[in-house]
Write a structure and sequence with these properties.
The complex is a heterodimer of chains A (250) and B (215).
Chain A: E1 10-19, E2 22-32, E3 37-41, H1 48-54, E4 63-68, E5 71-72, H2 78-85, E6 87-90, H3 102-112, H4 118-131, H5 147-159, E7 165-169, H6 177-192, E8 196-200, H7 204-210, E9 213-218, E10 221-226, H8 228-233, H9 238-248
Helix pairs in contact in A: 3-4, 3-5, 4-5, 5-6
Chain B: H1 2-6, H2 8-40, H3 45-59, H4 63-77, H5 84-110, H6 113-121, H7 126-156, H8 171-178, H9 182-213
Helix pairs in contact in B: 2-3, 2-5, 2-7, 3-5, 4-5, 5-7, 6-7, 7-9, 8-9
Protein name (chain A): Arginine ABC transporter ATP-binding protein
Family (chain A): Belongs to the ABC transporter superfamily.
Domain ABC transporter (chain A): 10-244
Chain lengths: 250, 215
């Protein structure tokens, strides 16, 4: 295949992480090729959010290697900032800048990090807000928007940096049920457009529909790594069977 | 009343000196204090150590001793000669900056950690994050305690009286030399300070109101 020479977009190799005595990531191995959508499932406390946050070094790791687009994560500093600019991240709690309007939220990083002129940054920001369906909210402050609208704004803010890869850390877990779909629709659209995505979520529907691959984590380990069809119809491990049993019965 | 009207020129001139001492030291200590706060929340341990040491030393030293150092001890070092007035500004600035630093730092701590994480995830550097995201939000909660710090600075300028730097605190000396009624003189000085502090309280209200709507 052609991908043999190209490095994977994300490579996680032999990663261990401790929170004090708690071993939260145990020798984790994971490769995400360019253009693939990987959904990470698992019970709470399984380390999936931590894994997601280690990839742009919001959580430093204790041992192992993490590479983004063939480049190992540098230590804290200007170089790490440059790498983070290429890795979009969407948080469970949105984390929009509370003192800035929606359009200013989207414009800030392109202007400060990429040195994009204001007019151009605004134009791109408005196009992105249009794409996620909240262009009419551009001049409001985050607190004036619904949770679903805030999360879509946060996705637009991440996309404004033209990232090579997008990380989603439980993007719909803090949303009211009726707002989950609007966010998932935006994410499905992104997946269709060929964005490389690592999505930590509890949304099984999204995993079935949009994922190329499902990773199942439990107790800090990657237990299964398969296609959605395989995982949902014929999980191999008992832990995955147990997990799916709890979720799919109600 | 006659104490005031007979010495109006003296009162105005020395209160003018107080205002000048206050204004210069206020601006300088706000700048220095904010820089110190940036050091104290920096990811570099050495910077955090410098900031913490500064605050510990200056905040725990009586202001009078800081004055004594810059007016009497520092000249003996023969590094750079400074006028008593400049020495007073330096003493007030360095002392007040320690308090400003802690007020700003407490403001920074009120900003949810997610705001900093989102900034870092977008590729902003530490300075960009502080300047564009964290400090603007920290300012809101900082206004009332910062006003108190500035009021304390305004009143602390009178410490300069003991060091031959003329300002409102020296009015008593001048009056007693002339044989005027010192008690009434001091009452007028006190009223003068109340009048000077009132605009600061007003400024506090304006900022609190303005920054509370913008969210």
């Amino acid at each position: 295949m052609t991908a043999a020479s190209a490095p994977p977009m994300i490579r996680v190799a032999g990663v261990d992480k401790f929170f004090g005595p708690l071993h939260v990531l145990k020798n984790v191995q994971l490769e995400v090729p360019k253009g693939q959508v990987v959904v990470v499932l698992g019970p709470s406390g399984s380390g999936k959010s931590t894994l997601c946050r280690t990839i742009n070094r919001l959580e430093p790791i204790d041992s192992g290697v993490i590479e983004v687009d063939g480049q190992p994560l540098p230590a804290e500093g200007k170089e790490l900032a440059r790498l983070r600019a290429d890795v979009g991240m969407v948080f469970q709690s949105f984390n929009l800048f509370a003192h800035k309007t929606i359009v200013d939220n989207v414009m800030l990083a392109p202007q400060k990090v990429r040195k994009t002129p204001a007019a151009e940054a605004r134009k791109t920001a408005m196009e992105l807000l249009e794409r996620v369906g909240i262009a009419n909210q551009a001049d409001k402050f985050p607190a004036q928007l619904s949770g679903g609208q805030q999360q879509r704004a946060a996705i637009a803010r991440a996309l404004a940096m033209k990232p090579k890869v997008m990380l989603f850390d439980e993007p719909t877990s803090a949303l009211d049920p009726e707002m989950v779909q609007e966010v998932l629709d935006v994410m499905t659209g992104l997946a269709k457009d060929g964005m490389t995505m690592l999505v930590v979520t509890h949304e099984m529907g999204f995993a079935r529909k949009a994922a190329d691959r499902v990773i199942f984590m439990s107790d800090g380990e990657v237990v299964e790594d398969s296609t959605p069809e395989e995982f949902f119809s014929a999980p191999k491990s008992n832990r995955a069977k147990d997990f799916l049993g709890k979720i799919l019965t109600h | 009343m006659s104490v005031l009207t007979n010495n109006l020129e003296l009162f105005l001139r020395l209160f003018g000196q107080t205002l000048q001492l206050f204004a210069i030291s206020a601006v300088l200590s706000l700048v220095l204090g904010t820089l110190l706060a940036a050091l104290r929340v920096s990811p570099v341990p050495v910077f955090r150590g410098i900031g913490a040491t500064y605050v510990t030393v200056l905040r725990n030293t009586p202001l009078t001793l800081v004055f004594v150092f810059f007016l009497f001890a520092y000249p003996l070092l023969e590094i750079l000669r400074i006028e008593p007035y400049t020495a007073a500004v330096v003493a007030l600035t360095l002392y007040t900056a320690a308090f400003v630093c802690e007020v700003v730092r407490s403001g920074i701590n009120t900003v949810p950690v997610g705001q900093a994480e989102a900034s870092r995830a977008l590729g902003l550097t530490f300075t960009q994050m502080l300047g564009n995201v964290v400090l603007p939000q920290a300012l809101r909660s900082v206004v009332p305690p910062m006003t108190s710090t500035m009021i304390a600075l305004l009143k602390n300028t009178t410490v300069a009286s003991g060091f031959a730097v003329p300002q409102a605190g020296s009015i008593r000396d001048a009056l007693s030399e002339q044989g005027d009624n010192v008690l009434f003189g001091l009452i007028w000085v006190a009223i003068g300070f109340v009048v000077l502090v009132m605009p600061l309280t007003y400024v506090q209200q304006v900022f609190e109101k303005r920054w509370s709507v913008a969210r």
